[in-house]
Amino acid sequence: MSSEMIEFIREGAVAKIRLNRLKALNALCNEMMEEVARILQELETDTAVGCVILTGSDKAFAAGADVKEMQDNHYLDIYKNDNFETYHCAIERFRKPIIAAVSGYALGGGCEIAMMCDFIIAADNAKFGQPEITLGVMPGMGGTQRLTRAVGKAKAMDMCLTGRMMDAREAESVGLVSRVVPLDDLQDTAMEIAAKIAAQSQPVAMMTKEAVNTALETTLAQGIHFERRLFQSMFTTRDQKEGMAAFVEKRKPHFTNR
Ligand code: CAA
């Protein structure tokens, strides 16, 4: 599934999508994001894949939407195409666990697609930002919403209104990223984490993801009710029987995703 702009790597039950448009610092042009969307669609039904990593280059995860592609657009063009819903937002619709492994710049749409993933692991050289205001626009792929939920109003306002960048340490301290590792360790760490997730029961991982995401969309009481129903439903699965039997028998579980 690799192409000129995307490097696709499979390691066991983990699939890695590496944005590979290095000369443009992985600016998210439509063609590249159409490919990402197509690959994700295929991975959704590939039962051998349990977790996906989205990553970029050492210098740039992605420096944002492609400004050169966008600059001459008119409102009606992008309204009719529903930018950026069609391709760029395919990541938020992906139902299996997906991790962003970020090194270098994650700016504008780059920061936004990282936040669409389930969590972000950052290299120590990562820089996050929503600099759209310096281009005379504002974030358009969910930045004002996800950043605010991730880091709170004060930091989100600061970032979106000034366009300043946040380094990896600050991003970790405010909860934008789950871990920071040395640049040289980023890919191995992401692969280790993804392999661990992929070794769990796939439907259980998917439902867990759905439940955590629901926490941001609903009241506490409704969220807890939803979680309880999902938890109860897991007792219809073989994986619940296997997971608990393996614990009691002091062995590793072998999940079959059923
Ligand atoms: N779109 C298109 N091309 C881009 C780009 C982008 N977002 N970011 C970088 N590039 C291109 C540059 O134009 C340059 O191309 P040329 O060699 O043909 O001139 C190449 O990538 C290398 O970039 P620089 O020479 O600028 O590299 P640098 O190391 O000096 O600076 C940088 C790096 C600070 C990230 C700088 O490139 C930059 O500020 N990029 C733009 C960041 C930005 O504003 N992103 C927001 C985009 S709008 C958006 O994303 C909207 C949304 O919410 C969806």
Characterize the structure shown.
The chain has 258 residues and is an alpha/beta fold. Helices cover 44% and strands 16% of the residues. It has a six-stranded mixed β-sheet, with helices on both faces. The protein has a four-stranded mixed β-sheet with strand order 4-6-8-9. α1 links the parallel β2 and β3. α6 packs across α7. The longest helix has 15 residues, at 30-44. The radius of gyration is 19 Å and the shape is globular. The structure holds acetoacetyl-coenzyme A (CAA). Acetoacetyl-coenzyme A binds at residues 24-25, 27, 63-68, 84, 105, 107-109, 112, 131-132, 135, 139-141, 143.
Work out the oligomeric state of the chains in this entry.
single chain
Shape designation: globular
Helix content: 40-55%
Query: If you compute it from the alpha carbons, what radius of gyration comes out, rounded to the nearest whole angstrom?
Result: 19 Å
Topology as a string of helices (H) and strands (E): EEHEEHHHEEHEEHHEHEHHHH
Small molecules in complex: acetoacetyl-coenzyme A
Please tally the helical runs, counting DSSP H or I stretches of 4 or more residues: 12
- Measured between the Cα atoms of the first and last residue, the distance is 28 Å
In terms of DSSP E residues, the strand content is 15-25%
* Rounded mean pLDDT score: 96
Low-confidence parts: none
Q: What's the β-strand tally? A: 10
The secondary structure category is: alpha/beta
The largest sheet, given as strand count, sense and whether it forms a barrel, is: 6 strands, mixed
Largest sheet strand order: 1-2-3-5-7-10
